[in-house]
Every structure is written in C-alpha cells, then in structure tokens.
Design goal:
The complex is a heterodimer.
Chain A lengths: L4 E7 L3 E8 L4 E8 L5 H15 L7 E8 L1 H8 L5 E6 L5 H4 L24 E4 L2 E2 L5 E3 L3 H13 L4 E5 L8 H13 L5 E3 H4 L5 H31 L6 E4 L5 E3 H6 L7 H17 L4 E6 L4 E7 L2 E2 L1 E7 L11 E8 L1 E4 L5 E5 L5 E7 L18 H7 L17 H16 L3 H25 L9 E5 L3 H12 L3 E4 L6 H8 L3 E11 L5 H19 L8 E10 L6 E4 L10 H16 L7 E11 L17 E9 L3 E9 L8 E3 L2 E4 L4 E4 L3 E5 L5 E5 L5
Parallel strand pairs in A: 1-4, 4-11, 5-6, 5-9, 9-10, 13-21, 21-22, 28-30
Antiparallel strand pairs in A: 1-2, 2-3, 7-8, 11-12, 13-14, 14-15, 14-18, 16-17, 19-20, 22-33, 23-26, 24-25, 24-26, 27-28, 29-32, 30-31, 32-33
Helix pairs in contact in A: 2-7, 4-5, 9-14, 10-11, 10-12, 11-12, 12-13
Chain B lengths: L7 H25 L3 H6 L2 E6 L5 E4 L5 H17 L10 E4 L11 E10 L2 E11 L24 E5 L2 E2 L1 H9 L4 H29 L5 H20 L4 E12 L2 E12 L2 E5 L15 H16 L13 E4 L18 H4 L1 H10 L18 E7 L5 E6 L28 H7 L3 E7 L15 E6 L6 E6 L20 E4 L8 E6 L4 E5 L14 H9 L6 H5 L2
Parallel strand pairs in B: 10-11
Antiparallel strand pairs in B: 1-2, 1-5, 3-4, 3-6, 4-5, 6-7, 8-9, 9-10, 12-13, 12-16, 14-15, 15-19, 16-18, 17-19
Helix pairs in contact in B: 1-5, 3-7, 7-9
The chains are: A alpha+beta, B alpha+beta.
Pfam families (chain B): Hydantoinase_B
Protein name (chain B): Hydantoin utilization protein B
GO biological process, one term (chain B): glutathione metabolic process
Chain lengths: 691, 544
C-alpha cells in the first residue's frame, strides 16, 4: 500500500481552500468550502472527507496534511486571546505600554497606537538583573517572582510571558522563572522572551513573548482537536503546520511557538509563486497575489522569496507601518496594500478618484454580486470593462449583475467626477493598478532591484485580472499565470519545506568577533534544528547561515549570507567584502569604514516536495467566442475568449485575448504572445515592454 | 469645496507616484544614515521641487515642518546660484540657520533634476548631523561658538566632489566619518528622487513638471483655504510662558488672525532675543507654526508648497522667535516647540473638538551622557525619552509620546551595550498627567546609574521645570520636569554637570495637560486610572 497522498488546507477568512495531490496517480484536486469561523475544523474535516471521496482515496493513503490558519491573526485582531501576565525586570514594567514612543501618523493629531496585549496592572517587575555583557549584576529574587506570579493568577491570568533585560545574552533568570512557575503552578503556560526571540531589543522581545502567550492556549487546543478529528477519520499521518517564513513545522513546535503561524497563508502564496518560478527556470519573479480586500506583493530572487525578520501584527490601521505590535519573526517579506476586488472607489474631498483601502469584502461584496453592496468596487469596474464574464464567474455559481454595477459606477464615480461610465471604470482600474505598481517599486527598491528585470507571477481571484495592467506600468516583459489562481496558498503548503529559522544576537565589530562563541551559537542552533526537523540523515538538511550587518554606527542592518561552507573558513576580511557587495547591491554604493555584526542567523530545511498544478485538458473547442474588452493602454478591443480547461499544452495565441478559469480570468493586449505550458500555465511575453 | 480638477484619475495617479518617490528616498536616507539623531529622532526631510524650487512632494516621515522650509531655502539658494549655472550632478549645501532649518547641526542639500538635458526641478534634503564643531556649552553667546557656519556652497560640481570644501568641512567636526556618512545618505536620497522624477516624466510623456506642479499647488492651496474659511473671522490670542534661561523667562505672545481664506500668525510681544541658544530663527518659527496648523486644519491633503500659501507667519526682528544674526540658536527647539501650545490655546475657543492641551514634550527634554568607560574607551549617548501629550476633548493624552516632534525612544539594551551606563528604571510616571475630564498623557521616570570609576558628563537641555504643560477648558496642568540626584540635590534642566562614580540620577519627564474639568471624568475611567496605577502614586509602593 502506498502512502503518497498529501493534502494542503488553507483556512481563510471567507473560504477554506483544500488541495489534494497524489504524484502516483498524477492527481491534483482542489476543494473549496465556506469557512466555519467558530469551529474551523468542521470545514476542514468536511472538506477533506469530500476530497477523499471525490478522488476515491482511502484515508490511510494520506501521507501528510499541511495546515495553514488565520487563527493567530484573527485572535489578535479580535483580541480574544488568553489573559496574559508579564514578568519583567524591576523598573521596566511599562515596557509594553511605552513601546517605541512614536506617533505612527504625524498627520493625525488624534491617532492612537495599538493597545498592548497585557494591561498595565498585569505587568510586573521582579528584582534581579543581568548586565549587557551577560553577567549577573543582581540575583533573581525568587520570592518576588512567586509573590508576583501568585498575585497575577489571582487576577485571572491564564498564561505568563517572561521578558527580562539582556535575556538574549543570558537566559538564566528567565529559565529560572520558568522552573519556579512550573513547580508552583503546574500547567500554567509560560513563554520566555529568550526562547521566542533571543535577539537584542527588550520591547520587541517582550512584545513577541506576550503575543505567543496570548495565542498559545487557543492554538494548542485547536491543533489538538484537529489532530483528533483527523485520527477519527482514519488519517494518522503527521499534521504539519505552515509558518510565516514559508516553511512548515511539526505540531509540537507550532503549539510551543504559535506566534510563528502569523500570516502563514499569504506566505504560502509567495512560496507557491517561487515554486512555479523555479519550475519555469525564472529565478527572479514578483509574486502578485490580489484577493478581495488587499494585494500582496513579494519579491522572489534566486528562486526563493525574500524574507525579513521583523513583522508588525494587529495594526490599528492595516496600511500604516508603526500602528501595530512589533514581532521578531521570520516572515516572507511582502508589501500589502488596500487594493482588492472589493476595494471601494469614491472621489475624495479634493475631487480626486480614490480606490480603497475601504473594502466591501465578500459581504456585502461588490455591487455585481447582488448581495446588498451599493458602492462601486474594482470588481464592478472589471465587469463593466469586459474582463469578467457575468455568466461563467465562479464556474457560473454566481451570476454577476452588470447593469447594477454600471449604475453604481455612474452614481458613485462617473457623475461626481464628470466622467462617462467606461472612463470611471477604467479610472478605477488605473488608480488601483498605479497603487500596486508604486508598492512594488518601493518594495523592490529596498533591495536595490527594479521591477522591469522581473517576471510577474499573478494569482488570487483578482491577480490575473490586473496582471497585464500592472506589468505594463512596471515595464515587465513576461507574465506567468498558473492554473487554479484561487488555491495557490494551499499549493504553497504542499511544496513548502520543513524549516527552522533561528537567530542569536552577539553584537560585535567585525574586527573583534569571538569566533569560538559564534561557533558555539551555531552548534546550538544546528542541534536544535536537527532535533525539530527530525533529520536522520535520509534526507539532506540544507543549512543557510547569515549575519545581520551594518557599518559601525548605522542603525539598520542588511542580511549577508556567510561566505564559505563552514565557520572555520569565514574570516573577517571575507565577511567585510561580502557585506560591501550586499550593501552596494542594495544602495548602489558602498562606504569606507568598518562593519559590525548584530545577529547571527541559521535557516535549516529539509527538501520540499514537487507538486504539479496542471490537469489533463478537457476535450472540446477551447474558444468560447469573442467579446469587447477595455484593455489598459489600448482602450476597447475585440478579444478572443479562451477556456483554460480546454487549452492544450503547446498552444500559442496572440493577443488581444481573454482566458477564463473557474476562479479568475485574465486578459492581454495585442502586443502579447501567450503560450500554454505542460501544466496549463500561461506564459505571456509582452512586446516592447522594456523600452 | 475646492474647484474641480481637470483629470481626477490622472492627477491622483501622478500625485501618488511622486509622493511615493520622496517616501522611498526618505527610507533610503534613514537606512543608510549613521547619526542616531536622524534615525531615533526623525530629524530630517526629503522633498521634490519644481523649477522655481516649490515643493511638489514631501516625505511623510521625518519632521513635517522642515519640508515647509525647503521652498524658501531653495529660493535663496537660487538667488546665489542662478538656474542657468546648474549642471547635472551639482549639489549645494548649507546650514545657515537663517536660510535652512534653524541651527548649525542641520545640513540642507539641494540637487538639480535634469531631464533630457533640461533642468526641470530640484531634490532637497535636510538632516541633523551628529556634530558640527564648536564648543558644547550652555553659555554660547553667539552663533560662531556653536560650530561651523556653512553658507550655501557647491559641494558637488557635475557629480564630482569639491575636494577643498569637503576637506574644510571634515577638518572642523569631531566625527568626520559619521558626518560624511550622513551626507552620503542625503546624496543617496537625492539619487532616488532624481531617478524617480525622470521616470515620472518619461512614463507620463511630460517635458517637465510645470503643468503637474501648477495643478497640485492649486489643489493643496484651495484645500487649505477652504479649511481656513470654515473658521469664524477674528483675532485669537494666547500667551505661553516657559522657564527660558536664568533671568530671561520665555514669553510667547501669539495672535492668530483669521480673515476669510487667510490665516496669519504674529508673535509681536514675545520675549526679546537672548544671549543664549534658545533663539528660534524666523525659519524655524515658521516651520513649527505651519506644522501644527496644517494637521489641525487640513490633515488629509498631501502637503506641498501650495499648502502653506494661505498661512502667514511673522514676528518682529530681535525677538526670541526672530533673532538677528549672529544670535546663538542651537537649542532653538526649546522655544520653537512652544509655538504649538500657543497656537492651539489660541484656537481652542473655535476648534474645541480638534485642538489638544499643552504637551509635556513641547519643548522636548534631551539628555546626553559622555565619558570614558573603565576600559578607557570614550562613549557618548543621547537618551531619547518622551513626556506626555496633551489631552483632547474626547481622548486622554498619549503617554510618553513626543509632540510636536516625533522622536521615539531606542532600546535600553542597546544603550547598555554601547555605553557603560546602567538604567535602573524607565517607567511611566504615575500621577504626572494633568487631571481633567480627559487626562493628560503621563511622562516617565528614567533612573540612570554610573557604575564606572570615573565621573560621567551629563548634559540636560529642557524646560518645564517651573512651567507645566497647561490644560484646556478646566483641565489641570501636567507635572513639571525635574532631575534629582540620589542625594536629593536637583540638577537644573539646562546644565552640564558630572555624574559621580556610583551615583544615580532620576530624570522625571513632564506630563501633558488635561482637558475639561476633572470632576466630569466618568467614574469607570477614574477607577481604571486607579487600577492601572496611572494616577495613584501609592501603586509604586505596592510593587516596589
């Protein structure tokens, strides 16, 4: 009996997407159910049962289930987590509330920062002090710890976070607190800042520890229940969980460090785009994921999504940096802007056309859905411009209302701004696209890159629809649109490798590095990674070492991959040169002067899985007919409409052309050549884009 | 309502695009800068200007008021360096406090933008450098002792550095490497602006910025005029008093005159200029009048030169808000930050829903420690920490948040890594927020210990030792600021002193003013204040 079947499950805010893959049968089978917000596992088990039935797969053939959840994100947004108490160094109990002491929006006199996860009365300082070099300056006052903890429990605390000064350098006091609490209050969940984020920066470390403590009880209960449900269905394969950084991890690690599950769905999208890119031999792509409320753009270079190690969770204003809680976490580096299919278009007080960030979401949704939406959205504009077929949208499950959408455009945009209906619709698309283009430029420029050197990989319900317009604005010459735009995150779960990301702070000038200490830190990180990944030598463990570096005196680091395979070969001169090159690549210049290292990083992973997205094309004429479509930069043109399920690999088509699948559609101008690859992916060359 | 724009789609797309360019350039500057002051206190600005030097786009990060100065600065630079003489790759630098942003450490740079061989505009930046020479002292009586004065000079000609000028600059500062690193960061920001500006013209098929600039200037001007027109005509007055310096308390007299679509702020009656560094040049006075007004009246519109045309700021020459050369000015923020209090107090009767009470951080209290550690290594550290903001009619003031600047606070762990100092405590200062229906934001207590065997120099530069942040509409003042040694001895807030080996100092940052009568505060909020320990000083006893 072969256990070859793997299932990816992405629980989103609206839909639970599933994807079953069986390499032996060459089968890739999607499923979609409405999310059951109060008991997410119901939709998951129902969805898996349906997939197994539809593909005639016995439960015991399932070799693995990979799960991604928005539970952490939602718990934070809705503030429904555990009652957390914080134990910190005496004299610093307000570390959370004082935060970074900035106004995130200097144009708004009344803007309020995100409220801390732990209220002031549950934040307590305890005596005991570690110095900057890791030496103990004052012993931990154990009686104080127990007294404070006892009082916190009386105040209803359900989980405790411990964040002491310089614990990244010496975690002895934090570990001692954990032991004391384990003895005095067995079963009380305790998160140590030195365990979740052993890096310099007391506020960010405390914030991370508190978030972990805040979501831990809920996530642990949820994952255990899900595992039990799967067992009850006869699936005894390991349940893996998707991480923010684009890897997957074990159930136990996920339960211990649930904060690492933040935003794992979007990360999986970028992982999927990178997998598509690698298969096509396109190492440098922009992953463009546009859904109902936002668009997410990530940069993939050398076949891997760029990652970053700072994240902000639970923003008061989703699109304003600084308005959330900083979390030290390895995440896929993406920029998210308020441009989605449901984004509402309206004139502002100056008479300029604005699109988003307000969104009609999925309920009531765009006017065209006929569910009570009254304000015109991007999707309504797409429909009026001919990009969507009202009869075949979502496989014909929902008939779109073109007349109502048009009237809403007239009322909401065209009349107030003195435009005609098509002008209003085209304007909405132009403004939305320009916003996404600006975000892409900004995002890539942070790494010294220019979008025109990249290929655009478009997915999400609205991504393919706007791929051509975005590519034109960014002067991108090649667009890739994989099949199954709507389940790319679930696809990402299936291809994501098991990964462990770690970091340790040892700030030091390059000339004064204690290499023995660095080697010891790497030994420790490698041992941990090997244990978590269960690497037993049968699969190759891929290890990447890097350092966060800057010129001495600067405040922002760039990540530099360590040259050479082992630390013994790394000498300061090579590292300085590698840093100089990375700095030049990012900022276009490098400076004279010594460099320093702040953090040492290790990323370890097992090989990922190959998964095909394609399917056997259906028979019949792929041509659905012709229709008039308004195409950015060209205006109204008559375009051939193609059914993607019937297009055969190798087919070549010249624009203008529209391609429709169940979850999305896309349209390309007359200067485009479109080729269908063996997985039914559309490869689009845009003539004259670079000029 | 503002007049209709000709192309509501095209203008939005173009405006957004150019604004993003200055934000991107600011991000580049921040990420490549060396000075902690740029990154911790956001003391910088980046702008893109048209051919006349009028700003079209201003970075949203940084000190918003500074952007307002870049147009007048560029006009003065263009008087000395006429447009016809500029070449691609030129760069003019100046720190003249009467031309640029008000004191010598702030260096402004202007670079032309050429498109297809034609001068189409300018990129400009200003940023606070870590050192500009001179003698650090509380007693400087003229500008020249505060450091090196750089009149507008070409630092780059056609892309090549003017070596003699560079050498002269670097020979006169204590941290030449950092200074040059920061100038490089400004240059990098200019490069981003120039590239994005040229792409803009290419992509939209425009020969220059003239049409676009005229339209965004008109729109921003109209938006500000419309906001001013909503205010009832009249003259609104307020006076603000501050500690000032020994024998010279500061008084700000402020008259805000609203007349139709115009608003004028005049500071006649304010203190005379002083032989001390708290003088605020008219430029700085303008910047710190424009910013609080802009966010009060028209917060939503992206700012550019047009935003400032309806606002007129004046002050008699020879006053502390318009001193004559060569008055010392390095601590000009101790005067300039007070202007926001005066303007909001003056406008409180007509905009009671929008103004805030005085903020404890207006003006900001800065603390600097310097010395030699026990291994013989020199160190110098700024402590960035903030006071409480004033309350508004509907909301309590934010605790430990700077206003009108936006200087954040760095990590204590990082401070302890880079200096031998030990921080004993950094906590909210219970009871420091002014009482009121809405409470003022809390200040903080920072206790610093010198564990070394040598004395550490401590420079305190602040105000509000005798003059608290006042409340509005019956709200009470916040707590005053103070610095006290373990011995109980007070350290004046404008002083240079020594922190002895083994000694500790407790620096208490002031609270913000309250809003509305304290007895009107809802019982549940009173209770929450007590439970959270925001008001009851007894709380610190319970958790010693």
């Amino acid at each position: 009996m072969s256990r070859t079947v793997r299932i990816g499950v992405d629980v989103g805010g609206t839909f639970t997407d599933l994807l079953l893959h069986d390499p032996v049968r060459g089968l890739t089978w999607p499923g979609k159910l409405p999310t059951t917000p109060h008991a997410p596992h119901e939709a998951i088990t129902a969805g898996i049962a349906r997939l197994l039935e539809e593909t005639a797969t016995p439960a015991q053939d399932v070799a693995g289930v990979v799960h991604g959840t928005t539970l952490v994100t939602n718990t934070l947004l809705e503030r429904t987590g555990a009652v957390v108490g914080l134990l910190t160094t005496h004299g610093f109990r307000d570390i959370l509330e004082m935060a970074r002491e900035i106004r995130f929006d200097t144009t708004d006199l009344h803007a309020r920062p995100a409220a801390p996860l732990v209220p002031r009365r549950l934040c307590r300082g305890v005596r005991g002090r570690i110095g900057a070099d890791g030496t103990e300056l004052e012993p931990l006052d154990e009686a104080d710890v127990l007294a404070q903890a006892g009082d916190l429990l009386e105040h209803g605390v359900e989980a405790v976070a411990v964040a002491m000064l310089h614990a990244y350098r010496n975690d002895r006091h934090e570990r001692r607190v954990r032991r004391l609490l384990a003895r005095a209050h067995p079963g009380l969940p305790v998160t140590l800042s030195s365990a979740v984020a052993p890096v310099l920066g007391e506020y960010e470390r405390a914030s991370t520890a508190c978030l972990n403590a805040y979501v831990q009880p809920l996530v642990a209960r949820y994952l255990d229940a899900l595992r039990d449900d799967l067992l009850a269905m006869g699936i005894d394969a390991p349940l893996r969980v998707m991480l923010s950084g684009g890897g997957v991890t074990t159930l136990d690690e996920a339960k211990e460090f649930p904060f690492r599950l933040l935003e794992s769905g979007p990360a999986a999208g970028a992982i999927a785009a990178a997998a598509v890119a690698r298969r096509l031999g396109e190492p440098d792509v922009i992953s463009f994921d546009m859904g109902g409320t936002t668009a997410k753009i990530a940069m993939v270079s050398g076949g891997e999504p760029r990652r970053t190690h700072d994240f902000e969770a639970g923003r008061v204003d989703k699109f304003k940096p600084g308005s959330g809680l900083p979390i030290r976490l390895t995440v896929v580096d993406m920029i998210e802007i308020g441009s989605g299919g449901g984004s509402i278009a309206a004139p502002d007080s100056l008479g300029l056309l604005k699109v988003g960030p307000r969104s009609a979401g999925s309920v009531p949704g765009p006017v065209a859905y006929g569910r009570g939406g009254e304000q015109p959205t991007v999707t309504d504009a797409d429909l009026v411009l001919g990009h969507l077929d009202p009869a075949t949208f979502l496989g014909g499950e929902m008939r779109l209302r073109t007349t109502e959408a048009g009237k809403a455009l007239d009322r909401g945009v065209a009349e107030p701004l003195g435009l005609d209906r098509i002008g209003a619709a085209a304007g909405i698309v132009e403004v939305a696209t320009a916003g996404m283009a600006a975000a892409a430029r900004m995002h890539l420029s942070e790494h010294g890159s220019d979008p025109s050197d990249f290929t655009l990989v478009a997915f999400g319900g609205a991504g393919p629809v706007h791929a051509y317009g975005l590519a034109k604005q960014l002067k991108i010459a090649r667009i890739v649109v994989p099949m199954r735009a709507g389940v790319m995150s679930a696809y990402g779960f299936l291809v994501a490798p098991a990964t462990v990301d770690q970091a340790r702070s040892l700030p030091s000038a390059l000339t004064g590095i204690d290499w023995d200490r660095v080697a010891a830190v790497y030994d420790e990180m490698t041992a941990h990674a090997t244990a978590v990944l269960g690497a037993d030598g049968t699969e190759e463990l891929r290890v990447r070492r890097s350092a966060d570096m800057r010129y001495v005196g600067q405040g922002f680091e760039i990540e530099v991959e360590l040259p050479g395979s082992g630390l013994g070969q790394v000498d300061a001169g090579r590292l300085q040169r590698a840093f100089g090159e990375a700095y030049r690549a990012t900022f276009g210049r490098c400076l004279d002067g010594p460099a320093e290292v702040v953090n040492w990083r290790l990323s370890a992973r097992l090989p990922g899985h190959g998964v095909t997205l394609g399917c056997e094309p259906a028979t019949g004429d792929p041509r659905r007919g012709v229709r008039d479509v308004w195409i950015p930069g060209h205006g109204r043109l008559e375009a051939t409409v193609w059914d993607r399920y019937r297009l055969r690999p190798g087919t070549e088509i010249a624009g203008p052309a529209v391609f429709e699948e169940r979850e999305s559609s896309c349209c390309f101008g007359p200067e485009c050549r479109i080729r269908v690859d063996p997985e039914l992916t559309l490869l689009v060359d845009v003539e004259g884009a670079g000029s | 309502m503002t007049p209709p724009v000709s192309d509501p789609v095209g203008l939005e797309v173009r405006w957004d695009r150019l604004a993003a360019a200055t934000d991107e350039a600011a991000s580049t500057m921040l990420r490549t800068a060396f000075s902690t002051i740029i990154r911790e206190s956001n003391d910088y600005t980046v702008v893109l200007m048209d051919r006349q030097g009028r700003t079209m786009a201003e970075s949203r990060a940084g000190i918003p008021g500074f952007a307002a100065l870049m147009s007048s600065l560029t006009a003065l630079v263009l008087d000395r360096f006429p447009a016809r003489d500029w070449q691609d790759g030129d760069c003019v630098i100046t720190n003249d406090p009467w031309i640029a942003t008000g004191h010598l450490p702030d260096i402004a740079m202007i670079t032309p933008v050429f498109h297809r061989g034609v001068l189409v505009g300018y990129a400009g930046t200003a940023a606070h450098s870590p050192d500009i020479g001179g003698t650090p002292s509380m007693g400087a009586t003229d500008l020249i002792s505060e450091g090196m004065l750089i009149p507008p000079l070409r630092l780059f000609r056609a892309g090549r550095v003017e070596q003699g000028i560079k050498e002269l600059l670097l020979a006169n500062v204590r941290l030449p490497g950092e200074l040059w690193g920061d100038l490089e960061a400004q240059t990098a920001a200019h490069a981003v602006c120039r590239r994005r500006a040229r792409e803009f013209l290419d992509d939209f098929g425009e020969p220059d910025f003239e049409r676009f600039a005229a339209e965004v200037h008109a729109v921003a001007d109209a938006a500000m005029r419309a906001a001013v027109a909503e205010l009832p005509d009249g003259v609104y007055r307020a006076g603000v008093d501050a500690d000032g310096v020994e024998g010279h308390p500061t008084h700000i007299a402020c008259a805000v005159t609203v007349s139709g679509e115009r608003i004028a702020i005049d500071y006649t009656g304010s203190s005379a200029q002083v032989p001390f560094s708290t003088n605020s040049t008219l430029n700085y006075t303008r910047a710190y009048s424009m910013y609080p007004l802009k966010i009060l009246l028209d917060p939503a519109t992206r700012t550019n030169w047009g935003s400032y045309q309806a606002i007129h700021v004046s002050a008699p020459e020879g006053t502390i808000v318009n001193p004559r050369f060569p008055a010392p000015v390095v601590a000009r923020h101790l005067t300039g930050h007070l202007l926001s209090c005066a303007i909001y107090q003056a406008l409180a009767p007509v905009l009671p829903d929008r103004v805030i009470a005085d903020s404890g951080g207006a003006p900001a209290l800065r603390v600097r420690f310097a010395g030699i550690d026990d291994e013989g290594r020199p160190f110098a550290q700024m402590l960035f920490a903030n006071a409480g903001m004033g309350a508004s009619r509907e909301k309590d003031g934010l605790s430990t948040t700077a206003f009108p600047t936006n200087s954040g606070s760095g990590s204590i762990e990082a401070l302890e890594v880079t200096s031998p100092l030990r921080f004993v405590r950094k906590e909210l200062r219970a009871g420091s927020g002014g009482r009121g229906r809405r409470r003022g934001g809390l200040g903080q207590d920072v206790e610093v210990h010198n564990p070394t065997s040598r004395a550490v120099q401590m420079v305190l530069l602040g105000d509000r030792e005798r003059h608290p942040a006042l409340g509005l509409d019956g709200g009470q003042p916040g707590a005053t600021a103070q610095a006290v040694l373990e011995s109980g001895q007070r350290v004046p807030l404008k002083s240079i002193s020594q922190l002895a080996p083994g000694a500790s100092v407790l620096i208490s940052f002031p609270g913000g003013g309250g809003f509305g009568p304290p007895q009107d505060r809802e019982p549940q909020l009173v209770l929450a204040d007590e439970l959270g320990g925001y008001v009851a000083p007894s709380n610190t006893e319970r958790h010693p």
